[in-house]
Design a protein that fits this description.
single chain, mainly alpha, two-stranded antiparallel sheet
Length: about 100
């Protein structure tokens, strides 16, 4: 499934033009404190994932529905799935890179 991020358009329709304005609305109406960099990324980039709480706060702050901020469309049959980024975890203290201690 492909999700098209339309937050910039949803914000503009409500005359929210800057990240500062959106950040203020998120804090006042949505009860969510985000950094300036996080709000800027939400406005300018399509997120690979988003927390449900963040999405709900955006909808509350902009007085809109989830479908106003994003739309989802099924992936066409035969098209390759989108690549998933894999996050590597650093070894914990006392743990080898392979995850076993002592290293074998």
């Amino acid at each position: 499934m492909h999700i098209r991020w339309k937050l910039r358009m949803a914000a503009a329709q409500r005359e929210v033009w800057t990240g500062i304005q959106l950040r203020r609305l998120l804090a006042e109406r949505g009860g969510l404190e985000l950094s300036s960099a996080s709000v800027s990324a939400l406005l300018t980039k399509e997120p690979s994932q988003i927390k449900l709480g963040t999405l709900l706060a955006l909808c509350t702050a902009l007085d809109c529905t989830r479908t106003t901020c994003s739309t989802s469309t099924p992936r066409p049959i035969g098209s390759p799935p989108s690549p998933r980024r894999r996050q590597r975890r650093s070894p914990r203290r006392g743990e080898s890179a392979a995850g076993r201690w002592p290293p074998v």
